[in-house]
Amino acid sequence: MIFKNCKYGQVKVNIGSGPHGKPDWINLDWGVLPLLGKMTGLRRLLVKTHLLPEKYSLAWPRNLYLKDCRRRLPFADSSVDFIYTSHFVEHLARYQAVKLFSECKRILRPSGVLRISVPDLKKL
Questions:
Q1: Integer Cα distance of 10 and 3 in angstroms
Q2: Of the candidates 95, 117, 27, 101, the residue with the CA atom closest to the CA atom of residue 67
Q3: Phi, psi of 18, deg, nearest 5
Q4: Residue 12's beta-bridge partner residues?
Q5: Closest to 57 (Cα-Cα) out of 69, 78, 40, 72
Q6: How far apart are CA 72 and CA 79, in angstroms?
Q7: Residues 18 and 29 sit within 8 Å (Cβ to Cβ)
Q8: DSSP code for 30
Q9: What is the DSSP letter of 63?
């Protein structure tokens, strides 16, 4: 999937959004929890039967796209205005983080903005 002619005007991408994605951003995440986030009924059943903790009853954004962001990002070159990622990069191996940043550079427009939020990596 390559996002073209985004309906949001400016193309804003949230990498590793978790359940806190924004409605006017393209929210990307990957894994079992984001998959369950798209399966509302199953997620509710698993929480109700205590197979998942109560904290997993959070609603995930409707505009969540399941995408492994350790791989090529699904955007054309120079097509994204903003990229935001919070508490995602620290889960990557160094080579995966380098690849992700290279992908961000590829898809960002020349005046694009990349904002990265991570915990103190030295403490990790």
A1: 12
A2: 27
A3: 65, -160
A4: 82
A5: 40
A6: 14
A7: yes
A8: -
A9: T
**66: its two tokens:** 């399941």
123 pLDDT higher than 70: no
How far, CA to CA in Å, does 43 sit from each of 50, 59, 63, 64, 81? 11, 10, 17, 15, 33
How big is the chain, counted in residues? Answer: 124
Span 56-98, pLDDT tens digits? 777 788 888 999 999 999 999 999 999 999 989 988 999 999 9
Nearest to 84 by CA among 30, 35, 26: 26
H or E element at residue 83:
strand 80-86
Give, in order, the Cα–Cα distances in Å from 57 to each of 15, 19, 48, 66. Answer: 21, 10, 9, 18
- Scanning the structure block, which residue is given the tokens 């070159």? 77
Copy the structure tokens of residue 9.
């005007």
Through-space distance between the first and last CA atoms of the chain, rounded to whole angstroms = 34
